[in-house]
Amino acid sequence: MTEIETRRLLVGLAGSLFTRGYSVGSAGNISVRMPDGYLITPTNSCLGRLDPTRLSKLDVDFRHVSGDPPSKEVFMHRAFYTSRKDVGGVVHLHSTMATAVTCLPDLDPINPIPPLTPYFVMRVGRRLPIVPYYRPGNPQMEEAIHNAARNARAVLLANHGPVVCGKTLTDAVYAAEELEEAAKLFITLRGVEARLLSPAQVDDLVATFG
Ligand code: 13P
C-alpha cells in the first residue's frame, strides 16, 4: 500500500468510527505503522473530519517530522509498538460502553469483561488489563501501558477509555469495535446469570485464531 493509500485508509476508518458514534468531539486518536515511521492523528482533531495530507508523520523514533502537531498521546501508541512486535495499528477511543466499564469498581484487573462471545475472544484475546487512572496526555501512563501490553492486545484506561492494537490498522479498528460490543453486552447483562464461553471454548478460539 502506498503512503497516500494508507493515509486515506486511516481517514476513512476514523470517519466511519466517528459517524457511528465511537468517538465524539476531538476524542480519540489513531496511528498506523509505516515503513519509515508512523502516521498519527493530529492533536485536537475530530476523527470525522481528518485531512489525509495533514496527518502527523513521525519517524521511527516517534519524532514529529511533518504534518500537523501530533496527538498528545503519542506515548500511548509508542507503548504498544515497542511492547509488541506484531503491531501495525493502534486505536484509542472514549467509546461509551468500554469507557463505562473503566468506571466500574471491583473489576477483575486482568479480565474485566468475561468471555461472552467468540469474536471478543478472537479479536481482543483473553486478557484486557486495566491501567490505573492518569490525566489524559500524562506521559507517566506509557510505562504502565507498555507493561500491560506485553501480554495483551488491548487495555482499559481507568475512567478514560480503551486502547487497542492490531496486526494492521484495520485489525485494530475491528478489535476496538468488538471491544465496544463486548462492553455493551457486559453492561446489559450485569445482574443476570449469563452463560459464558467455557474455558475449553476460549482455549479452542485462541488455539484456532491466535
Ligand atoms: P489528542 O487530541 O491529543 O489526540 O487527545 C485526544 C484524546 O483522546 C485524549 O485522551
Descriptive overview:
The protein is an alpha+beta fold. The chain has a single domain (3-209), classed as Class II aldolase/adducin N-terminal domain (L-fuculose-1-phosphate Aldolase). The protein has helices at 3-19, 74-83, 96-102, 118-124, 141-149, 169-188, 199-209, and strands spanning 29-34, 37-40, 56-58, 64-66, 89-92, 130-131, 154-157, 161-166. The protein has an 8-stranded mixed β-sheet with strand order 4-3-2-1-5-8-7-6, with helices on both faces. The radius of gyration is 16 Å and the shape is globular. The two termini are 25 Å apart. The model has no long low-confidence stretch (mean pLDDT 97). The structure holds 1,3-dihydroxyacetonephosphate. 1,3-dihydroxyacetonephosphate binds next to loops.
> What is the percent of helical residues?
25-40%
- List the helices and strands in order: HEEEEHEHHEHEEHH
Q: Which molecules other than protein and nucleic acid are bound? A: 1,3-dihydroxyacetonephosphate
Q: How large is the share of residues in beta strands?
A: 15-25%
CATH class: Alpha Beta
Largest sheet: 8 strands, mixed
Overall geometry comes to: globular
Mind telling me the CATH superfamily name?
Class II aldolase/adducin N-terminal domain
Number of helices: 7
Q: What is the averaged pLDDT score?
A: 97
The number of distinct β-strands equals: 8
